Amino acid sequence: LNALVEFYNATEGVEKTNASYLIQKGANGKTTLDALLDGRKQVYLLIAAMANFLTHEMQSPDGGIYHTYDLTNKAPVKGPRLLKDQVSVIEALVRAGNTVKAETYKNSALDIYYFMNNHLWSESQQFYVTTEGGTSIGQLPDIVEALYSVDAMSDLMSNNSQLQWNKIASPWLTALKQF
User: Fold this and answer.
1) Which of 2, 18, 30, 41 is 20 to 30 Å from 169 by CA-CA measure?
2) pTM for the whole thing?
3) Burial code of 152-165, b = ≥16 C-beta within 10 A, e = fewer?
4) Where are the alpha helices (DSSP H) in 14-124?
Protein backbone atom coordinates (compact mmCIF):
# COMPACT_ATOMS: atom_id res chain seq x y z
CA LEU A 1 0.00 0.00 0.00
CA ASN A 2 2.82 2.41 0.84
CA ALA A 3 4.47 1.72 -2.51
CA LEU A 4 1.22 2.51 -4.34
CA VAL A 5 0.81 5.75 -2.41
CA GLU A 6 4.42 6.64 -3.19
CA PHE A 7 3.92 6.00 -6.91
CA TYR A 8 0.65 7.92 -6.99
CA ASN A 9 2.14 10.92 -5.23
CA ALA A 10 5.33 10.82 -7.31
CA THR A 11 3.31 11.04 -10.52
CA GLU A 12 1.18 13.95 -9.32
CA GLY A 13 1.15 16.64 -12.01
CA VAL A 14 2.54 14.39 -14.74
CA GLU A 15 -0.26 15.56 -17.04
CA LYS A 16 1.60 18.89 -17.36
CA THR A 17 4.63 17.24 -18.97
CA ASN A 18 6.18 18.35 -22.20
CA ALA A 19 8.29 15.22 -22.55
CA SER A 20 8.00 14.25 -26.19
CA TYR A 21 8.19 10.51 -25.52
CA LEU A 22 5.17 10.79 -23.23
CA ILE A 23 3.00 13.00 -25.43
CA GLN A 24 3.78 11.44 -28.80
CA LYS A 25 0.78 9.53 -30.17
CA GLY A 26 1.20 5.88 -30.94
CA ALA A 27 -0.39 3.77 -33.69
CA ASN A 28 -3.58 3.50 -31.63
CA GLY A 29 -3.88 7.30 -31.37
CA LYS A 30 -3.08 7.31 -27.65
CA THR A 31 -0.03 8.64 -25.91
CA THR A 32 2.08 7.02 -23.23
CA LEU A 33 0.86 9.84 -21.03
CA ASP A 34 -2.76 8.74 -21.62
CA ALA A 35 -1.84 5.25 -20.44
CA LEU A 36 -0.01 6.67 -17.40
CA LEU A 37 -2.99 8.84 -16.45
CA ASP A 38 -5.36 5.87 -16.82
CA GLY A 39 -2.96 3.86 -14.67
CA ARG A 40 -2.93 6.57 -12.00
CA LYS A 41 -6.73 6.35 -11.78
CA GLN A 42 -6.48 2.59 -11.28
CA VAL A 43 -3.76 3.01 -8.65
CA TYR A 44 -5.97 5.50 -6.80
CA LEU A 45 -8.79 2.95 -6.72
CA LEU A 46 -6.38 0.22 -5.63
CA ILE A 47 -5.15 2.40 -2.75
CA ALA A 48 -8.72 2.84 -1.55
CA ALA A 49 -9.48 -0.87 -2.03
CA MET A 50 -6.41 -1.98 -0.08
CA ALA A 51 -7.12 0.48 2.73
CA ASN A 52 -10.71 -0.77 2.83
CA PHE A 53 -9.48 -4.36 3.03
CA LEU A 54 -7.21 -3.51 5.94
CA THR A 55 -9.90 -1.64 7.85
CA HIS A 56 -12.85 -3.92 7.07
CA GLU A 57 -11.24 -7.36 6.92
CA MET A 58 -7.96 -7.25 8.83
CA GLN A 59 -8.90 -4.90 11.67
CA SER A 60 -10.54 -6.50 14.67
CA PRO A 61 -13.25 -4.79 16.75
CA ASP A 62 -10.61 -3.93 19.38
CA GLY A 63 -8.67 -1.98 16.73
CA GLY A 64 -5.78 -4.40 16.23
CA ILE A 65 -4.64 -5.73 12.87
CA TYR A 66 -4.47 -9.49 12.37
CA HIS A 67 -1.21 -10.90 11.01
CA THR A 68 -2.54 -13.18 8.25
CA TYR A 69 -5.59 -13.72 6.08
CA ASP A 70 -6.99 -17.13 5.10
CA LEU A 71 -7.99 -16.95 1.43
CA THR A 72 -9.88 -20.25 1.60
CA ASN A 73 -12.10 -19.15 4.48
CA LYS A 74 -12.03 -15.49 3.47
CA ALA A 75 -11.29 -14.41 7.02
CA PRO A 76 -8.36 -13.17 9.06
CA VAL A 77 -6.53 -15.80 11.08
CA LYS A 78 -7.09 -15.05 14.75
CA GLY A 79 -3.96 -15.16 16.86
CA PRO A 80 -1.48 -12.93 18.60
CA ARG A 81 -1.13 -9.59 16.85
CA LEU A 82 2.33 -8.24 16.10
CA LEU A 83 3.69 -4.77 16.77
CA LYS A 84 5.34 -4.60 13.35
CA ASP A 85 1.97 -5.18 11.65
CA GLN A 86 0.31 -2.48 13.75
CA VAL A 87 2.91 0.18 13.02
CA SER A 88 3.17 -0.73 9.32
CA VAL A 89 -0.58 -0.47 8.88
CA ILE A 90 -0.73 2.79 10.85
CA GLU A 91 1.73 4.33 8.42
CA ALA A 92 -0.06 2.88 5.39
CA LEU A 93 -3.52 4.03 6.50
CA VAL A 94 -2.38 7.55 7.34
CA ARG A 95 -0.68 7.88 3.95
CA ALA A 96 -3.68 6.36 2.14
CA GLY A 97 -6.04 8.66 4.04
CA ASN A 98 -3.99 11.69 3.02
CA THR A 99 -3.85 10.54 -0.61
CA VAL A 100 -7.51 9.68 -1.14
CA LYS A 101 -8.73 12.31 1.32
CA ALA A 102 -10.50 9.78 3.56
CA GLU A 103 -10.52 10.56 7.27
CA THR A 104 -11.90 7.11 8.03
CA TYR A 105 -8.50 5.53 7.30
CA LYS A 106 -6.82 7.94 9.68
CA ASN A 107 -9.43 7.11 12.33
CA SER A 108 -8.68 3.42 11.85
CA ALA A 109 -4.98 4.20 12.32
CA LEU A 110 -5.84 5.86 15.64
CA ASP A 111 -7.82 2.76 16.63
CA ILE A 112 -4.68 0.69 16.01
CA TYR A 113 -2.70 3.03 18.26
CA TYR A 114 -5.31 2.60 21.01
CA PHE A 115 -5.12 -1.17 20.52
CA MET A 116 -1.35 -0.96 20.95
CA ASN A 117 -1.79 0.91 24.23
CA ASN A 118 -4.32 -1.60 25.53
CA HIS A 119 -2.81 -4.87 24.30
CA LEU A 120 0.89 -4.40 23.54
CA TRP A 121 2.05 -1.97 26.21
CA SER A 122 4.55 -3.29 28.76
CA GLU A 123 4.44 -1.23 31.92
CA SER A 124 7.65 -2.78 33.19
CA GLN A 125 9.59 -1.99 30.01
CA GLN A 126 7.80 1.28 29.22
CA PHE A 127 7.29 0.33 25.58
CA TYR A 128 5.29 -1.98 23.35
CA VAL A 129 5.98 -5.71 23.21
CA THR A 130 6.54 -7.21 19.77
CA THR A 131 3.78 -9.82 20.10
CA GLU A 132 0.43 -9.70 21.86
CA GLY A 133 0.86 -11.71 25.05
CA GLY A 134 4.66 -11.57 24.73
CA THR A 135 7.26 -9.95 26.94
CA SER A 136 9.96 -8.73 24.53
CA ILE A 137 10.06 -5.17 23.24
CA GLY A 138 12.26 -6.31 20.39
CA GLN A 139 15.37 -4.86 18.84
CA LEU A 140 16.24 -1.23 18.19
CA PRO A 141 14.86 -1.29 14.59
CA ASP A 142 11.46 -2.44 15.95
CA ILE A 143 11.45 0.39 18.47
CA VAL A 144 12.50 3.01 15.92
CA GLU A 145 9.85 1.87 13.43
CA ALA A 146 7.15 2.07 16.08
CA LEU A 147 8.31 5.51 17.20
CA TYR A 148 8.45 6.78 13.62
CA SER A 149 5.05 5.42 12.55
CA VAL A 150 3.09 6.54 15.57
CA ASP A 151 4.84 9.89 15.81
CA ALA A 152 3.95 10.60 12.16
CA MET A 153 0.28 10.51 13.07
CA SER A 154 0.47 12.23 16.44
CA ASP A 155 -1.16 15.35 14.98
CA LEU A 156 -4.33 13.26 14.47
CA MET A 157 -4.54 12.45 18.19
CA SER A 158 -6.64 14.19 20.77
CA ASN A 159 -4.77 16.43 23.22
CA ASN A 160 -4.85 13.72 25.90
CA SER A 161 -3.56 11.09 23.47
CA GLN A 162 -0.80 13.44 22.32
CA LEU A 163 0.26 13.95 25.94
CA GLN A 164 0.24 10.20 26.47
CA TRP A 165 2.26 9.63 23.28
CA ASN A 166 4.79 12.28 24.29
CA LYS A 167 5.18 10.56 27.65
CA ILE A 168 5.82 7.25 25.85
CA ALA A 169 8.09 8.57 23.10
CA SER A 170 10.15 11.24 24.88
CA PRO A 171 12.52 8.96 26.82
CA TRP A 172 13.11 6.81 23.74
CA LEU A 173 13.69 9.76 21.42
CA THR A 174 16.04 11.37 23.93
CA ALA A 175 18.01 8.14 24.21
CA LEU A 176 18.18 7.76 20.42
CA LYS A 177 19.52 11.30 20.02
CA GLN A 178 22.33 10.43 22.42
CA PHE A 179 23.03 7.13 20.65
Assistant:
1) 2
2) 0.91
3) ebeebbeeeeeeeb
4) 20-23, 32-53, 83-100, 103-115
